[in-house]
Amino acid sequence: MLVDTMPxxxxxxxxxxxxxxxxxxxxxxxxxxxxxxxxAATGDAGSTRTTNGSGANNGGPATSSAGPGGTQTGSSGGxxxxxxxxxxxxxxxxxxxxxxxxxxxxxxxxxxxxxPFDPSNGLIMFPNTWHEGHPETPEMNVVPGDPxxxxxxxxxxxxxxxxxxxxxxxxxxxxxxxxxxxxxxxMLGAMNDTFFQSNIRRIFGTPxxxxxxxxxxxxxxxPAGVAPDLSDPFDPxxxxxxxxATTEGWIRVVPGDPxxxxxxxxxxxxxxxxxxxxMPKVYPRLTADEVEAVTQWxxxxxxxx
Length: 305
Fold this sequence. Notes:
Strand order of the largest sheet: 1-2
Radius of gyration: 19 Å
Largest sheet: 2 strands, antiparallel
Number of strands: 4
Distance between the termini: 21 Å
């Protein structure tokens, strides 16, 4: 499951959700094209993270309410049948696909949804840091047995939460000016120079940062995240400059030739092509079934089963 950049936690005192962003943003992927994990403004795979929501919040939906989840085709998660919900079978796939690109262990300002049971920064009985400034919101991200007082449910089910953005969150597309800067950077040789530091680094972003410092790519494209690593685009193995993409026939960035650079093609794209999805990737809201699965999981005790 960033611009309101803190899906679950407040900037040092606020936060960003589920998604996967919450997607709380999420899932893995590569530059092979249409993987659901595609994330930031990259020529490979990716997607990433937050706009401000507004509106009233009455403390979350009713205990077993699914909420307005939408009708899009979503992740492989969802109720598998029967009254009981399995975290591994029903909930983890939702988190993985929609949340964990942004909500992972290396980002401490927002919950680690890759391991919701993490006692230091997970979801279970972990404080909602939005609550201090928005006392009408639930105090905890997840209260086992009590979906109505679990902020996670609020974030994934309400279109305009009282605090932060609805999850999953998706970054804005690059602007015309940013696209022009990326194209010029490649045309000039894709070097680590003053132009890169002044114009391109802010687009790629800094891993673990929220808001403007997070840019539009490194929410997902960080060293241990979705390839390529846009925190270090010059890395010869996992960067973009003169590195082959997993999409057959493509180089991620060909210095001097933006039209043959997968990064530029996908950033400038307006629809999915043989080269892959447009970047940054947009995450759809959870479906009603997915919201129900997460809500029921919490109602049954938020077990690691």
